[in-house]
Structures are given as C-alpha cells and as structure tokens.
Predict the structure of YciK family oxidoreductase.
Amino acid sequence: MPTKYQAAEELLENKIILITGAGDGIGAEAARTFARFGATCILLGKTVSKLEKVYDDIVEAGGQQPAIIPLDLKGATAKNYQDMAQTIIDQFGKLDGVLHNASMLGHLSAFSDIPETEWMDVMQINVNSAALMTQALIPALRKAQHASVVFTSSGVGKKGRAFWGTYAVSKFATEGMMQVLASEFENRGLRFNCINPGATRTKMRASAYPAEDPMTLKTPADLMPVYLYLMGDDSLNVNGQSIDCQPK
Ligand SMILES: NC(=O)c1ccc[n+]([C@@H]2O[C@H](COP(=O)([O-])OP(=O)(O)OC[C@H]3O[C@@H](n4cnc5c(N)ncnc54)[C@H](OP(=O)(O)O)[C@@H]3O)[C@@H](O)[C@H]2O)c1
C-alpha cells in the first residue's frame, strides 16, 4: 500500500531529482522530503525567493546542497529545456528522477466562458511544458540506472467535473502522456507514473475552495509516503500507474 509506505533512511542516496514547482505547496515539501532521504534536489520554479527558502531549509537540515533553476514554464521553450538538460548532464552526469508538480489552476468557470489566453496558459504550464521538458530530459534519465518520472494528476483528470474546464482537461492530458510514455519505455529502465494528491492544504486548493476550512485537509507532508515510494527503487516494477494519495 504506497500510502502506508515507510522508506528506508538511505532510499534516495546518490539520486539526482528534479522537482518543478519546488518553491511552494506539495513541490516544496517533496523537495525537502527527497533531500531528507538523501537525494540531491534540483529545485525548479518561478519565484526565486521561494526556491531560495527551500534551498536554505534543505541545507539547514543537513541535506545535500541543492541546485536552483529559476524558470517560468509559461514562456519556456524546447531550447530552454535542452540547455537545462545539458547543464544537468554536465553537472551531475545523470538524472534519476523528475517530479512534474508545477501547475496552474486558472479560474473555475463555465466552459463557454474560458478566455482563450487562460486556456493557452493552463495547457502550456500543465501539459506542454511537461511534454517538452520530458523529451529534453530523456537522455539524462537514460544515464541513470533506474529513473522514475512522476507526473501530478488530479481527481478531475480521471472524471470530468463541471466548471473545472481547462485544468481538468490538462490533467486528463497528463494521465494520457504518462500512459504513452510508460508503454513506450516498458522494460527499458525508465518508468512513468502519476500521483493524484487529493484535497491538500495548499494555496491552489484554497483558491479553488475559498470557503473551506484548510485545517480539515491533509497537509503536503501527509502525502509524502507515495512520493517517496514512486521516486525510490522499491517501485522499480511500477510503470503506467496513477496512484491516489487519498483513495476513497
Ligand atoms: N492541493 C491540492 O488539493 C491538489 C489536488 C490535486 C492535484 N494537485 C496538484 O498538485 C500539484 C501541486 O499543487 P499545489 O497544491 O502544491 O499548488 P501550489 O501550492 O499552488 O504550488 C504550485 C507550484 O507550481 C509553481 N508554478 C505555477 N506556475 C508556474 C510557472 N509558470 N512556472 C514555474 N512554476 C510554476 C508555483 O510557483 P510559484 O509559487 O513561484 O508561483 C508553485 O511552486 C499541482 O500539479 C496540482 O495540480 C493539487
């Protein structure tokens, strides 16, 4: 049961793991957690001050010194990702894991009212960037013995819901991208899976449910057993799965 998984202290030792959206919410907690279990984290995100705070947390806790990649996924191009991948190979020689976590919610509204710009931005940040980044990172991932790529899905990426328009469509696309990659790389030393965090106490959740009492929700820390399970070698045979952190 991945939700009850207990990771060995050295689970992620010698692993290099890239986390997108590492400055806040679930991504920040994942970065701190991966570092606590021995990983060297590459913190990618939009707001440098937030990334620096996570960097300091990791160093203060005695973790491996992280790297920071300030990047706004909205404007990033394939060339940006290729340059980033080359820098990772030059600096670390390989990449053992990617957590595609950064996402934009957009506004909840009737489908007919979704502005074109918002549709484009949400798809760019949630889907296109993860696709182009994954393409660019495959050579670095193939240099690791057993690399794990984890995409972040959502309940509305498995069953559509009124007013969740672009975000829901982007999460269906994420599930689809994961399945295509998992099938393509089966038995080739690279695995691809999705995590659905479920309702979690973060800024994104608060913006979707402003009237909700956040204290009733799981925290990002509560979800970490599943993140550790998929990132470490205990999940070597798990490929093409979508795992719920809070199964009903
Ligand atoms: N929280 C939930 O209840 C819940 C439920 C289901 C799925 N999820 C999924 O879980 C993941 C994490 O969500 P969260 O709740 O932790 O959200 P969050 O607290 O809003 O954090 C999102 C992160 O993504 C980054 N990001 C957003 N736009 C970006 C861009 N253009 N370029 C680079 N980074 C960008 C943000 O950076 P800045 O802070 O610098 O803007 C932030 O670090 C998302 O994929 C979300 O869809 C969350």
Summary: The chain has a mean pLDDT of 97.
